[in-house]
Design goal:
Layout (H helix, E strand, L loop, with lengths): L6 H10 L1 H7 L3 E6 L7 H16 L3 E6 L2 H10 L6 E2 L2 E2 L3 H23 L6 E5 L6 E5 L2 E3 L2 E3 L4 E7 L2 H8 L3 E5 L1 E3 L5 E4 L1 H11 L4 E6 L4 E4 L2 E6 L1 E3 H7 L8 H12 L4 E6 L5 H7 L6 E4 L2
Parallel strand pairs: 1-2, 1-13, 2-10, 5-10, 9-12, 13-17, 16-18
Antiparallel strand pairs: 3-4, 6-9, 7-8, 11-12, 14-15, 17-18
Length: 292
């Protein structure tokens, strides 16, 4: 909060944002929303305000969300098993029904409602609509062995036409990450990788991923050396040493930048207004991946 600042200090904060407002005006920024921020009311409201602020400041934000905690809670409430193999949720046909219902009717609906408290901006979109996301089935790999994990897929194609139409109408797409394959089977897809693919397809200027840590550390678990910026080549050398939870996020950033997005940043979603801090301050937050 800035209520304790003097009027002069508040003006200084606004002026600091000016060059970033100029740089990112009319730029598409894809934000992957997830982690603890999804289940904390104060962080949810702060995130929604950030997205509305981006839109009102002339940027073109796109939100892509997951929903792991909510899906697990709903499966438990229905007496269904939550099983993970190789970092992926085993997804039966029955589980897939729950996944889509939670993502679209709970998580997406809540995000749209919160963003729209600040204006008629947000529009919910599911990845299985308008040919937005196409997926193919994938297996998990455990000790070198392929294991069938059901209706879990990788995004193979993005058709951004529906998102472009929403953006051109001055609104903010809020995307749930489920997808159809070529014959109409519905799949649960990783939100980090889906968001990365969407950022590439839209030609985004920036890709931001919310995490539950401050960023990428040089020698984890030593937290004394947070990496503020890392090149693609440096990250490729580190990727095999990362903790399991950071791998899909950093791989998503790696793919986005490798395929043309100028910069991708992982930020701590536990920090209120982390998106604004990353976009509109000189220091930024988290770890930024750039080409090189």
């Amino acid at each position: 909060m800035i209520s304790h600042l003097t009027p002069q200090q508040k003006a200084t904060v606004l002026v600091e944002a000016l060059p970033w407002l100029e740089r990112f005006r009319n730029a598409t920024i894809v934000v992957k929303f997830g982690g603890n921020a999804m289940v904390n009311d104060a962080l949810l409201e702060a995130f929604a305000a950030d997205i509305a602020y981006l839109r009102l400041s002339g940027l073109r934000p796109v939100v892509v969300h997951g929903g792991g905690p909510q899906i697990s809670a709903e499966l438990q409430a229905r007496g269904l098993l939550s099983e993970f193999i190789g970092g992926y949720r085993v997804t039966t046909a029955q589980t897939m029904t729950v996944v889509r219902d939670v993502l679209v009717n709970e998580v997406q609906s809540q995000l749209v409602q919160l963003i729209n408290q600040h204006g008629d901006f947000a529009v919910g979109v599911s990845g299985d609509e308008h040919n937005l996301l196409t997926a193919q089935r994938r297996d998990a790999v455990v000790d070198g062995e392929l294991i069938d994990i059901g209706f879990v897929g990788d995004v193979t194609q993005v058709n951004p036409d529906s998102l472009v139409a929403i953006i051109e109408n001055g609104q903010v797409p809020v995307v749930s990450t489920v997808a159809l394959d070529e014959v109409g089977n519905l799949y649960n897809v990783n939100a980090d990788t889906a968001a990365s693919a969407i950022a590439v397809a839209l030609g985004a200027e920036k890709f931001v991923v919310l995490t539950d840590v401050p960023g990428l550390y040089r020698n984890w678990p030593d937290t004394s050396d947070l990496i503020s910026q890392i090149t693609v080549s440096e990250l490729k050398q580190m990727i095999g040493t990362l903790e399991t939870g950071m791998v899909p996020k950093m791989e998503a950033c790696l793919r986005a930048v490798t395929q043309g997005v100028p910069e991708a940043t992982v930020v701590d979603g536990r920090q209120e207004h982390c998106v604004l801090l990353e976009v509109f301050t000189d220091e930024g937050v988290g770890t930024m991946v750039v080409s090189g």
